[in-house]
Amino acid sequence: MSNKLLTTTGLLAGTAAFLALNLLADRALRGARADLTENELYTVSEGSRKLVQGLAEPVSLRLFYSEAIAADIPNIRAYAQRVRGLLEEYASASDGRVTVAVLDPEPFSETEDAAVAAGIQGVPVNDLGDQLYFGLQATGSTDEREVIAFLDPRREESLEYEISRIIHKLGQPHRPVLTIVSALPLAGQEPAPWIGQQGSEPYYVYEELQDLYDVRLVQPGATALPKETELLMVAHPKGISDHLLYAIDQFVLRGGHALLFVDPFCESDRAPQDPNDPMAQFTVDKSSNLDRLMQAWGLEIPGDVFAGDRVTALTMPGPGERRQPIAHVYYEKLEPGNLDEKDVVTANVPSILLSTPGIVRRKDDASVELSPLFTTSTEAAELPTSAVQFMPDPERLLADYVPGGKALTIAARVHGTVKTAFPEGRPTAVPPREDETPPPSGPDPDFVAESREPINVILVADADILADMFWVRREKLFGQSLAVVQFGNGDFVLGALDNLSGSNDLISIRSRAATQRPFKVMDDLRREAEQRFAAREQALNEQLRQTERKLSELQSKKDTASSLILSPEQSAEIENFQKERLATRKALRDVQYDLRRDIERLETWIKVVNIGLVPALLCVAALALLGWRRQRRA
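The structure corresponding to this sequence follows.
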């Protein structure tokens, strides 16, 4: 009896201790977390931690989530759990600088009114008209707000960056002034039918930059940079004036940081359509350069050739009726192997798509150092830009292709001490038109003949990298514009500017890993099963087509007068063909059934192995350990 009493007392004491420990852990270890997922889906990156810990102003996050309505939508319900966990990680890492509130906008409630007022997009999910709200509102200390109207699971990989970008914007009252010099319609265009000009939306990368910087857009024909410029971006400066080129030269030599995009052939530079000259689109000059600066720095980007690469070329349907897939050597899809993995700007960029990129070269007597960021494979070749000016022929380019045997540099960091490209000082002023602002004239009292410290410039020999068509696809979701990112062009541009402005936190934020974990082994086995049945299914389909064709030919031979009267031979032949068709269809259904049965059998076995085998092995191990201990005790 004493042993039973002792055992019972021990069990009760253990249960009480277990409950007390759980209550204590719930109170004392509320902020303790352990993310055991392979891709760390519930953990923010080190860059996000540093970002929230360095906020100058607090940020409040409100997650609007219709929990009851989403109960019957498994993918939304699971995604909402991951979003909530990620937001709690932000709050935990911020030491109180970021606060999180989760609100359930039930139908006809004040919370639903608040969600609508905040700009959260309600999505109808059933015939009753119930609205699913799943969005995020962020508020800064000055009541400045940012909203993600609907958290789309398809964009989960960029979720952490989006949230960190919003927090960074709201938590930093001062936004650096970014001046952009460009001949491209980055801010969009209003339609002008009288000159054949169609309207266009702003570049997506331009919209992203406006969220992070105080952007000033300057045309290449201008004569000066805004005085408040803190960071400079030059994108396809076609027709740049000498006065503006002088301003860029002095900005860089005085320690300003710049991101430069020049292009020997910019495909996205589209001239207005001229009905009187249909060839104007092909004959317009699409090149841009900064040759005067490049020469002073000991660099060159040839204007008559581009870097073609059959290894990184994008494979697409070719011209002609057959449209067989063929490598388009003027479209380069750069993978991580072509990007500098040691540089913080390109380390986490998944891929980049370019069009007719130029080649960056360093002269032998150059005083600057060139650190490549984008490079081709060693199979690259220098191809003439004239080959792509008029309806490029990918088959001809590939047939005449001769590998150069060395990798070509497309983008690079430029670092070192340089001299001015204007040793004579400020260019002589040209009398302006009446509607123009007079350019600066006379000697420049702040003239710099040589850089005071090594310059910090990133040079890219391609401007098409900025155009939407090369990296992002625009879609409409519930009336809202949605950008589906396909390549990492925007990641590079934003990361490069963040780096040049002195902030590496946003660059280091990794893309969120995908949560779909397919059974890879099962997919491989499914493909093998499909291959086994593919030949038989194809033969039966061909037999069915022949049978139906013969039946159609037999019926078409009847003349109009006797169309309702069939001879016994015709009736028998038609009946045989119909039976054959039914038999073939049945055999085809049997093949498809066998295929599904084999696939389901594979799925069942893999699920048994994944779900049942591990617990069974643990049970066997536990029983073996128990037997070993009893034997040892005996």
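Residues 283 and 585 are 58 Å apart (CA to CA).
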